[in-house]
Amino acid sequence: MLTLDGSQGEGGGQILRTALSLAMCTGLPFRIENIRAGRKNPGLMRQHLTSVMAATQVCGAKVEGAQLGSLTLDFVPGKVRGGEYEFSVGTAGSATLVFQTVLPALLMADAPSRVTLKGGTHNSMAPPFHFLDRCYVPLLRKMGVEVALELQRHGFYPAGGGEFTARITPVEKLKPLVLMDRGERVSSYAESLIAGVPGHVAKRELETVGTSMGWVEDQLKIRGLPNDQGPGNVLMLTLEHEHVCEVITSFGEKGTTAESVAKKAVNEARDYLVSEGAAGEHLADQLLLPMALAGGGQFSATTISLHTSTNAKVIGKFLPVEIDFQAEGSARHVVTVRS
Questions:
Q1: Which residues contact residue 124 at a Cβ distance below 8 angstroms, ignoring those fewer than 6 apart?
Q2: Would you call the peptide bond into 226 cis, given omega within 30 degrees of 0 as the criterion?
Q3: Domain ranges in the chain?
Q4: CATH architecture for segment(s) 2-173
Q5: Alpha helices in the chain (DSSP H)
Q6: Could you count the other beta carbons within 10 Å of the beta carbon of residue 28?
Q7: What span, in angstroms and rounded, lies between the C-alpha atoms of 143 and 299?
Q8: For 306-333, what is each residue's pLDDT tens digit?
């Protein structure tokens, strides 16, 4: 049984989720200690426990320590099974992270799967649904994956209540991905999602984006949602290129002006556009695991976070791969995965 230290590197929930994914894929059992020791409230929180229980259901695992607040978990995986699944976080905790936990295993299952996920779909501590749908899944399709996502209901912090479904077709072998350049810009647009929030908030956000980025009216879109899906507000800037898409998000909250929300997103968008990496910081982190399962590949990234380097170390404990990071200036890094 592998033993992992949950306090290493960034010390967050990603260590647990990556371990769960790879245990299911490889059949290797593990024990993780000091779970989320680097966080203010260490141990398993609701969304992490949901990921554990989802993985347990998908592969019929034997588990010890699966309780809220637990600092240690033993996970012995069984056979991965496709089928109909429903996983609910029960809070605004991220349903998208639960999806990313079980997806790699279900790609190797014995049958197609339809997964319903309930909880937070748009919160500041996880990839929002639109990031998965526009950025992550399209690159998986280039690796031979058939995955279709559908959003039924948005779920914002603190209420949650979001829902989306995923249809997953197993694949015999993932194809290595090479993503060194973005290619030409295809489109750029901003969307302000509002639910139970005054319309002027969205208008002010989009006016700030338009002025700062030089974008015209057709690129600035208000997405009004039913009030019962709120309160919630997220501003999304989508930068679509020939080979890759980036979705930058900024969240409205009490005490923060609409202009401040927009400026945060604008600054991140400008940093991405002046850099030379194809994958942004978060996408770089998420590409590591499928590329390692594919046994190889290469991509360029704008930056390598502590989150990403920690993820690489966990992957290396389960799979016989090398993950190499090479800086090419301050705004471009080349990531190479080889078996």
A1: 157, 249, 251
A2: no
A3: 2-173, 176-181+277-339, 185-274
A4: Alpha-beta prism (3.65)
A5: 13-26, 46-59, 95-106, 129-131, 137-142, 199-213, 258-274, 281-294, 306-318
A6: 17
A7: 13
A8: 999 999 999 999 999 999 999 998 789 9
As given in the structure block, the two tokens for residue 63 are 């588990």
CB atoms closer than 10 angstroms to residue 115: 24
**Closest Cα to residue 227, out of 130, 125, 131, 159?**
159
Q: Active site residue: 48, 130, 154, 307, which one?
A: 307
Active site residue 241: no
**Confidence class for position 39, pLDDT limits 50, 70, 90:** confident
38 has a pLDDT exceeding 80: no
Give me the architecture of the 185-274 domain, per CATH: 2-Layer Sandwich (3.30)
The model's pLDDT over 169-218, given as tens digits with 9 standing for 90+, comes to: 999 999 999 999 999 999 999 999 999 999 999 999 999 999 999 999 99
Using DSSP's 3-state secondary structure scheme, residue 270 falls into: helix
CA distances 160 to 88, 120, 133, 163, 253, Å, are 10, 5, 19, 9, 15
Residue at 5: amino acid letter: D
Please give the C-alpha separations between residue 132 and each of 147, 151, 176, in angstroms, as whole numbers.
11, 11, 19
Per-residue pLDDT tens for 74-87? Answer: 999 999 999 999 99
User: Contact 24/77 with Cβ under 8 angstroms?
Assistant: yes
pTM of the model: 0.94
DSSP-derived secondary structure for 140-194: HHHTT-EEEEEEEE--BTTTB-EEEEEEEE--SSPPPEEE----SEEEEEEEEEE
Cα 335 to Cα 339: distance, rounded to the nearest angstrom: 14
Q: What is the CA 251 to chain-centroid distance, rounded? A: 16
CATH architecture entry for 176-181+277-339: 2-Layer Sandwich (3.30)
Q: How far apart are CA 52 and CA 324, in angstroms?
A: 29
